[in-house]
Amino acid sequence: VCLVVPVMLGWLPEERIPGAGCCRVTLSQFRKHPSVSRVAVVMTLVSSTLSVVQVLVPDKRVRAAVTLLCAVVVGTQSYRSLKQITPYLGRTGLFIFLRQCLRPGLGETMFKWLTDHPGGPQLGAAKLGFVDCFGSLGLLCGICIYNKYMTNWSFRRIFVTAQLAYFFTQLLEVVLVMRWNLVIGIPDFLFLVGDDAFDLMVSRFFFVPMCVLAAKVCPPNLEATLCATLLSLGNFGVAVSGFLGVTICEMWGLVGDNFDNLPYASLAKACMALLPIPFIFVLTPAFTPNDPVPEHPAQYEDSTRRETEAAEAAEAIPDKQKDPTDSDKQKYPPTETMAV
Known about the structure:
Elements: H1 4-9, H2 28-32, H3 34-56, H4 60-82, H5 87-101, H6 108-115, H7 125-150, H8 155-177, H9 180-183, H10 188-217, H11 223-251, H12 262-271, H13 277-283, H14 297-316, H15 325-331
Helix pairs in contact: 3-4, 3-11, 4-5, 4-11, 5-10, 5-11, 5-13, 7-10, 8-10, 8-12
């Protein structure tokens, strides 16, 4: 509805393509940006191969190895192709992809434990849907907090804070699986409401600045193409993380109604949330969302280092030079005048 109604009313400024040429395949745009086209071709081939392997190969080790190999191929090709446009774009695309890959989920296993397992909360689908309603409040709170307090932070500080907060949300899932929330007197439903709202709030701490960074590093006249490319990288990373989550479940024996090792799988998933932190310092820029984008990645770091050195040198110099006569006054104190 959001797209059809404006198009039918003629609100969109784009010119409509004639009927004869709207369905014709042209390769001019494909050749116009070969680096982006290579990324699209590689992701198409790799995603098709990965889907076939996940369906047809029964060995979990082979599937895990193929998944990691596909992730390496896509990450390498995307970085090599996008850095030809701008160095910042290559790093940004690679960081988006790696961060999404390192977020495995337990998927159906966790849902089945929440709804059917005798040792779980045994919540119905209606209650779980009601939990998602409170998650929307978390989204709103996350955006408000970002706009109020985090816009003057550097991208590295924002992403590190968001990743640590995400690690904390994963630990809350471990608390739920271990049933520690009942020990401290918090019902399952209320705990899930708070967990879901906090999780979605933390997700805004990453999503909003990442959109800002992608928009800042995107060259002119390539906005739509690179937006689709970065979103595709993120979606492919989500697919890879889903396959890795299946591998984690199989490694811990979470098959069928066996949930004995679910706490260990949840803890392993939480620890993987710390893996993207080193990539933040390597792949994300040091400037803030309000700063202009330097022409070269090292330019901002050099200027920042020079400003820091100048500030330290200024602090080393006293604000007011010491009066040279002070020592003489201390050495020869004034004598009292005798009254005549």
